[in-house]
Amino acid sequence: MAQEKRVVTAYRITGEPPKIDGLIDEEVWQLVDWEGNFIQQQPYEGREPSQQSSFKILYDDDYIYAAIMSWDSYPDSIVSRLSRRDIGDGDAVGIEFDSYFDKKTAFSFIVTASGVKIDKLISNDGEYEDENWDAIWVVKTSVNDRGWIAEIKIPFNQLRFNKNDEQKWGLQVGRFIHRKEELSLWQPVPRDAPGWVHQYGILEGIKGIKPRRQIEIAPYVVAKTERFKPEDENPFATGKRNKFSGGIDAKIGITNDVTLDLTVFPDFGQVEADPSEVNLTAFETYFPEKRPFFIEGSNLFNYGLSFGDGSQSSENLFYSRRIGRTPQRSLNLIDNEYCIIPESTEILGASKITGKNKSGVSFAIMEVITNREYAQIDINGNRRLEEVEPYTNYFVGSLHKDFNESNTQISGILTSTNRFFDNESLDFLHTEAYSGGLNLFHQWNNKNYYLNFKSYFSHVAGSNEAIIRTQRASARYFQRPDATHVSVDSSANSLTGHGGSFIIGKGGDGNWRFASFITWKSPKLEVNDIGYIRSVDDIFQVIWFGYRYWKPFSIFREVNLNFNQWTGHNFTGELSYFGGEFNFQTQFKNYWSFATGISSYGKSVNYTALRGGPSLYMPGGINGWGWFSSDDRKKITFSLSSSFHSSVSLLSKNYSLGLAYKPINALAISLSPSYSYSEEKLQYVENIEHNNEMRYINASLNQDLYIFELWVNFSITPDLSFQYYGRPFFAKGKYYDFKRITNPKANSFTDRFHVFNEDEIGYNAIDQMYLIDENLDGTVDYRFEDPNFNFRSFQSNLVVRWEYRPGSTLFLVWSQGRDSFESDYNTGLNYSAKELWDAYPHNVFLVKFAYRFY
Predict the structure, then answer these.
(1) How far apart are CA 338 and CA 323, in angstroms?
(2) Beta bridge partners of 443
(3) Three-state SS for 76?
(4) Which pairing describes strands 201-204 and 7-9: parallel, antiparallel, or unpaired?
(5) End-to-end CA distance of the chain, in Å?
């Protein structure tokens, strides 16, 4: 049911503005009455809060001011914990402005009782929250015997609004009481409401202000030194490397509605490294973006290829990790040759233009240029350069337009990647790649029901070598001998594909939710030059039902139930996979939480298991998982999770423990150890040609994985913090029962392969090679390397971050990496830990100083 809109009036300051000190004792604050009557949303929707809250709003020509009073009968119970910016902990209040009054977009300013700032840019009616948006604003808090106060000052140039004589904005004010996990709102919003921003109340009374252009320029300098293991005779591995660099970040308002974000020679040295992993699949690992320039406003360029939260949820037309990637050409060195290859491709410059015109059309444009990169090769003191990555221009542009009071939305995106090279050694790369999409979203019945249709295309062009490589890549494997609808075209110079999705569902009004969608990706779809896609040639269908019960009852605080089923087909109509899942989550009244789920799936057709070989039938099975956590309001908390997978071909188990300790309000320590074990009956080893026929070699694999993650956060003030991250990683795998695939689509699992017996397989311990004599004539027919592995790594990162002035930061960083590898699976964890400790460390020390002018 639609809630009555509350209205509050801002008061214009005619004299001295208030001093932002968290005390609100200036006379100007006394001229305005408190606005209150907050309503509880969680846990008891519609009730009065356990503690009341009030606020006032002032403004002048340049700033909007807010005072929020959190009354509390037990001020000693207020939880005031220090943490880094954008990491909230403890009691908090927030104010959000829909200054465009488009009922979709809002600027959120939240502060904890300890004064930690959390700011977010909300879009798409609350569907996206960009927590990496960092505004320039001032806030102070204070605790007294009646509760606690937040005093806020926000420049108008941090907001976006129309050029009207009198403004009308959407407004929401909220308060979170940590000890009760209670959320209360000034403008009531039902728990079953679809969307967020369009539910806001109204802020009136702001007159005579003008939109302000935002101009912020932040030059920075970086000093970096590395220490690593020197290598005899390798002229590039001297054991040390020093670098001094600089650049500029800028945010420039072309108009109040259009903003240019610019970075020249960006540095991301303070960003933590990606976690270590052992990837035995055919697919590239997806890593989330961590670089600030690409994170902020990333939703403007987001165009997911599917719906839901499964393995396909990361597939997107734009994957910013492609920009600045490791150079793609690998080199084959001869004896006595050494080389050094850049770890990443230098970004010469990047810019984003975002805005909204008077017709209500939102737009976003990103342009990035990356440098040509060279490997330096040395042989006996003679050096040469080899190009390993060409000059590349990346472009992404998007448009968005609302109709019908924002109930109907049309948006589109276009991307391009253009590479510039005349070196034949880079012919394996596309010279140009384009993709685009058109999206239609419509809601009705007070936004409770929705449908979404999206379509997209791709086009890549390049040499015959590049297009053949694309057709043979793991997303396609057109060379599969049993494929009837695709094949490798060795004369092609381009490839064009398409895809799309359609979903219809219910997102509000009551406890029940449902959605049904279908997604398709044609065999020739390719977006990996600037996007991310794992597999194509797929038609994926899902039906999902969910039940939400938010009102506390019995021992439960809230309960969620979900059921979904899915099927997948390729473009011939062949059933590729199918299954279903049920899961359950709840929080109890004692603030402990529990969740569990189980899924079942049938026999599937795996088109990638043999890496370009024929399709392989894989048996069905079941997955199960469970998780519970203790009361996270306490100083000591823990969680435990476990999962399993069981089928004829695979048995796996995973156990994870989470421990967190907050001995004082400024210190938080968390430790997360986990252990995984798996027994895989069909693990790819190698494809080998013998007598003009392919041999698809697989094996059984036992794999153990140990991970320990440690986080330590210590905050001296809301603007000065220390953060440490350490991650030892141990992975080992033992291959046995080597076999070759003989009948990949046999009905019986054991009829799909032949296990080599003792007379057929031998082992050369000196060369670490397996030798195969298929016909038992005493002659080795073919061989392959011992695939056993025992990999250890340690990654750590210590960051001191000081925001000595709003928007201006100093980073001190020390990162260390160690790793070691051997093929002996049988060593214990103690031995592996000692080997890792004895490994030579790679240390990086970095200082980054940035000063923001505004």
Answers:
(1) 27
(2) 450
(3) helix
(4) parallel
(5) 45
Q: Which of 474, 498, 481, 471 is nearest to 571 (CA)?
A: 498
Measured CA to CA, the distance from residue 736 to residue 177 in angstroms comes to: 56
Inter-CA distances, 275 with 27, 272, 288, 727, 793, Å: 54, 9, 11, 8, 10
Instruction: For residues 178-190, give the mean pLDDT.
Output: 97
Please list the residues that pair with 344 across neighbouring strands.
none
Report d(CA 644, CA 622) in Å as an integer: 8
Gap between the Cα atoms of 655 and 640, Å rounded: 8
Query: Considering Cα of 441, then 442, then 447, then 449, what sign does the dihedral take?
Result: negative
- Structure token digits, residue 192: 């079953």
The answer to which of 267-276, 504-513, 666-675, 679-688 has the lowest mean pLDDT is 267-276
User: Any idea which residue has 């590039």 for tokens?
Assistant: 236
* C-alpha–C-alpha distance, residues 679 and 736, integer Å: 11
Kindly state the average pLDDT of the residues 553-580. Answer: 97
Edge-first strand listing for the sheet containing 382-389: 337-340, 373-379, 382-389
- Two tokens at 371? 């440098």
Model confidence band, residue 517 (pLDDT cutoffs 50, 70, 90): very high
Backbone angles phi, psi at 794, to 5 degrees: -140, 130
Q: Rounded distance, CA 394 to CA 370, Å?
A: 8
Residue 286 is encoded by which pair of tokens?
């997806």
How far is Cα 741 from Cα 621, in angstroms, rounded to an integer?
21
Nearest Cα residue to 311 out of 340, 285, 279, 292: 285
Domain boundaries, the chain: 7-211, 242-267+283-510
Q: How far is CA 115 from CA 92, 662, 716, in A?
A: 9, 18, 12
Q: Is residue 463 a contact partner of residue 427, using CB atoms and an 8 Å limit?
A: yes
Mention every residue, 6+ apart, whose C-beta is less than 8 A from residue 387: 329, 372, 373, 374, 375, 421, 423, 425, 426
Provide mean pLDDT across the span 121-138.
92
How far is it, in rounded angstroms, from Cα 69 to Cα 30?
13
In Å, how far from its chain's centre is CA 708?
21
Distance CA 733, CA 826 (A): 9
Mean pLDDT value across the chain: 95
pTM over 0.85: yes
Helix/strand/coil for 151: strand
3-state secondary structure at position 790: strand
Match domain 7-211 to its CATH number in 3.40.50.720, 2.60.40.1190, 3.30.40.10, 3.30.830.10: 2.60.40.1190
Quick one: tokens of 544? 């999902």
pLDDT in tens, 96-117: 999 999 999 999 999 999 999 9
CA distances from 313 to 302, 320, 448, 533, 534 (A): 11, 15, 23, 10, 11
Instruction: Describe the strand order of the beta sheet including 769-772 as a list of residue ranges.
Output: 761-764, 769-772, 782-785
**What are the backbone angles phi and psi of residue 416, rounded to the nearest 5°?**
-150, 145
- 373 strand-pairing partners: 389
Residue 1: predicted pLDDT:
54
pLDDT at residue 2 is higher than 70: no
Q: How confident is the model at residue 163 (pLDDT cuts 50, 70, 90)?
A: confident
pLDDT tier at 826, thresholds 50, 70, 90: confident
435-464 pLDDT, tens digit per residue, is 999 999 999 999 999 999 999 999 999 999
In the numeric block, which tokens belong to residue 250? 């800028």
Quote the CA–CA distance of 532 and 311 in Å, as a whole number.
12
Q: Could you tell me the two tokens for 711?
A: 């986080």
DSSP E strand stretches across 648-788: 650-664, 667-690, 693-717, 720-741, 753-755, 761-764, 769-772, 782-785
Helix, strand, coil percentages in the chain from 3-state DSSP, rounded to 5: 5, 55, 40
Q: What is the pLDDT of residues 467-486, one digit of tens each?
A: 999 999 999 999 999 999 99
Residue 37 has pLDDT above 90, yes or no: yes
Question: What's the one-letter identity of residue 767?
Answer: D
